[in-house]
Specification:
Among the domains are: about 1-125, Actin-binding Protein, T-fimbrin, domain 1, CATH 1.10.418.70; about 490-580; about 590-620. The chain is about 85% helix and about 0% strand. The chain has helices spanning about 1-15, 25, 30-45, 60-70, 85-90, 95-105, 110-120, 135-165, 170-195, 200-255, 260-300, 305-330, 335-385, 395-455, 460-590, 595-600, 600-675. The protein is flat. Pfam families: IFT81_CH (PF18383). Keywords: Acetylation, Cell projection, Cilium, Cilium biogenesis/degradation, Coiled coil, Cytoplasm, Cytoskeleton, Differentiation, Phosphoprotein, Spermatogenesis.
């Protein structure tokens, strides 16, 4: 406790509190002062809680602090594990409760400040399931969840940017270095352009190089499109397989389902829902009402002291003792005849408890299944909206994770290489600056010496002459190399042409002989083809005439067959209608009343009479409702006014109770000061 108080005092004396406490003054603080101090610390974590507790009720202060501590995930220590005792200590400002809370808050102020900031946006509002059935409410809830996820992602990116350590000075240095590199590249491009302009047909060569680059880019884009289409085809095949599997399962379910099984399932659902509506839900509502009544009663009572608690404990002990005595008396006066009934009662109570437990388990399972289905639908809709693919299988996910790991390792290696190259580039840049400064200093010294000797500009002229001579020597070497290469190429081409001529001479002789034989065979082939065409034309005319004749006969046969089937069907339908008319006439003429009831005329007459009677009853009911509408509305208005009056009385009573409790606390505080 001493170390804890020492830590609290040190933190409160520092920034941003500046309380100027010592151990004695801090230990002598009263309950109200400790509560104000706790409220100040909470206000530093969340500015909404920087309030004066004298301006609000004690219950409101305790509720506000408990809500924030719950958001910050504070857990009471073992000494105050009982939540009611912890709440009572927080209301009265007990040191055993306030000191551990202050120690916990001051240990991790920055972390809790971030948590409180995030809680304003990430604490989800729970919407009841029956409200989510409305489409508008469901859409708003979906937008709310999407905005929450977007806020999470933005906050993560913000934190990563903070951790990355990039500063504006470094960015400016990088920009200046890149601009210098851009200038160097521009100068290098100009030099290369000047060098290329001396080459013959340089424009054509540049155009060919540009076309080659464009074709390579196009090839890369086509390869990428091919890969994307392959992946889309693969995913489409997977979706098709899953759809086929689902179709087979549904077909099996439909094939196995029978009316009896469906009726049995419906009866089970109806029994379960009727049990919930008639037994379980009314019992739970009654228990909730009683618990709410007792909680309201406890909340309306003033703050309890230790004496009140001891009195309540003594009353509980007395009631328990009386209960034990009554149980002993009952055991003494136990009659054997009641044993049978007690056994049945026990069995009935056990069965009812089991029934309630199973109903709760079933309800929980249904709620969990519905929530999971909603989550799956939300995730699939989000993936579909974001252009994502279907959910991956386990093997695909493993392959994706392995690929991601390999890419991550490759990314880390490349990043390390970039960092090394950047460091080396900085060193080289610094070396270049130093060498440039030295060169400028040497140039200045050389110019000063030249001015002293009277030959200013000699070094510059000498450098230009050396540069021009070097360029000239390079051009001469290039020209000599090109001439040598061209002469060697001409010699090689002449030698290759001579070799090809020598090797092709016997082949050309054979080719001439083959051409003559080919011409002879071509003439013979044309003659045979003319004969074949004339014969084929005659056979084709005969075949077409026969096909037309067969086609006409087939059409006539099909027409006659369709007429026969139509006449046969009409005959059957007329026979059926005649049979029905005979049966209806027989039933209508019959003297048996049961036979008459089966007649269609009698059935429709009976249905018309029933509907007319039902219309009369509904009109009478409508008349009664219209007559009683006015008095009922008036009575409902009176009950609403009465309810408002009682609510106003309840609020006035609660305000009077709170004022009485505050006055009692102030009087007790004044008495304690007088005693001191």
């Amino acid at each position: 406790m001493g170390d804890q108080m020492q830590f609290i005092v040190e933190k409160l004396n520092g920034e941003p509190f500046r309380k100027n406490y010592n151990l004695i003054s801090f230990d002598s603080l009263e309950g109200l002062q400790l509560l104000q101090l706790l409220s100040d610390v909470l206000g530093e974590i969340d500015p909404k809680h920087a309030v004066d507790i004298r301006e609000e009720l004690p219950e409101q202060t305790a509720k506000r602090m408990l809500n924030l501590l719950g958001i910050l995930k504070y857990k009471p220590p073992g000494t105050v594990s009982d939540l009611s005792a912890f709440r009572q200590g927080l209301v009265t400002g007990s040191k055993t409760v306030i000191h551990p809370v202050l120690h916990w808050l001051l240990q991790r102020t920055n972390e809790l400040r971030t948590r409180a900031y995030l809680a304003r946006f990430l604490v989800k509002l729970e919407v009841p399931a029956e409200f989510l059935q409305d489409d508008a409410v469901a859409d708003f809830n979906k937008q709310y969840e999407e905005l929450m996820e977007a806020f999470k992602n933005l906050h993560k990116e913000h934190e990563q940017l903070k951790i990355s350590g990039l500063s504006t000075a470094e960015i400016r240095r990088d920009i200046s270095a890149m601009e210098e590199e851009k200038d160097q590249l521009a100068k290098r491009v100009e030099r290369l352009k000047k060098r290329v302009e001396t080459v013959q047909n340089h424009q054509r060569m540049l155009e060919i190089a540009r076309q080659l680059r464009l074709e390579k880019e196009r090839e890369e884009s086509l390869a990428q499109q091919k890969q994307e289409q392959k992946s889309q085809l693969f995913h489409a095949e997977q979706r098709l397989q899953r759809a086929q599997v689902q179709l087979k399962e549904m077909q099996q379910v439909v094939a196995d389902s029978k009316p009896e099984s469906l009726m049995k399932k419906l009866e089970e659902e109806i029994n379960f829902n009727s049990y919930l509506a008639t037994e379980k839900i009314p019992r739970e509502m009654e228990s909730k009402k009683t618990s709410v009544y007792f909680l309201q009663k406890v909340a309306a009572e003033p703050a309890m002291t230790q004496a009140d608690l001891t009195a309540l404990q003594s009353e509980m002990d007395e009631v328990n003792a009386e209960m034990n005595q009554l149980i002993e008396k009952r055991i003494i006066t136990y009659e054997p005849t009641d044993s049978k009934f007690s056994m049945y009662r026990q069995q009935a109570s056990i069965i009812s408890r089991k029934k309630e437990a199973k109903a709760e388990e079933l309800q929980a399972a249904k709620e969990e299944m519905s929530s999971l289905e909603r989550q799956v639908e939300q995730k699939s809709s989000q993936a579909h909206e974001q252009g994502g693919s279907e959910v991956l299988t386990e093997d695909e996910f493993k392959q994706y994770v392995s690929k991601l790991r390999s890419k991550n390792t490759l990314y880390k290696k490349k990043r390390q290489e970039i960092a090394e190259i950047t460091a080396e580039y900085g060193i080289l840049q610094r070396t270049e600056e130093l060498l440039r400064q030295r060169h400028e200093a040497v140039q200045q010294q050389l110019q000063a010496i030249e001015e002293k000797k009277g030959i200013s500009g000699y070094s510059y002229t000498q450098e230009e002459l050396e540069r021009v001579s070097a360029v000239k020597s390079e051009m001469d070497e290039v020209k000599g190399q090109t001439l040598d290469n061209m002469s060697e190429m001409v010699k090689k081409l002449n030698a290759m042409v001579a070799e090809k001529k020598a090797s092709l001479a016997p082949v050309i002789k054979e080719l001439r002989q083959l051409r003559q034989s080919c011409q002879e065979l071509t003439q013979e082939c044309e003659e045979k083809k003319i004969q074949y065409d004339s014969c084929a034309a005659g056979l084709e005319t005969n075949r077409s005439a026969l096909e037309q004749e067969v086609k006409g006969l087939l059409e006539e046969c099909a027409q006659e067959e369709s007429n026969y089937r139509y006449i046969n069907c009409m005959k059957r339908s007329l026979e059926i209608q005649l049979q029905r008319a005979k049966e209806e006439m027989k039933a209508y003429v019959s003297s048996d009343p049961q036979e008459r009831r089966r007649a269609v005329r009698e059935q429709y007459t009976r249905i018309i009479l029933e509907q007319e009677n039902l219309g009369k009853k509904l009109r009478e009911k409508q008349k009664v409702v219209r007559e009683s509408h006015g008095p009922n509305m008036k009575q409902m208005k009176m009950w609403q006014d009465f309810e408002q009056l009682m609510e106003c009385k309840r609020e006035c009573f609660l305000k009077q109770q709170n004022q009485a409790a505050i006055g009692q606390i102030i009087q007790e505080g004044g008495k304690d000061r007088l005693v001191l």
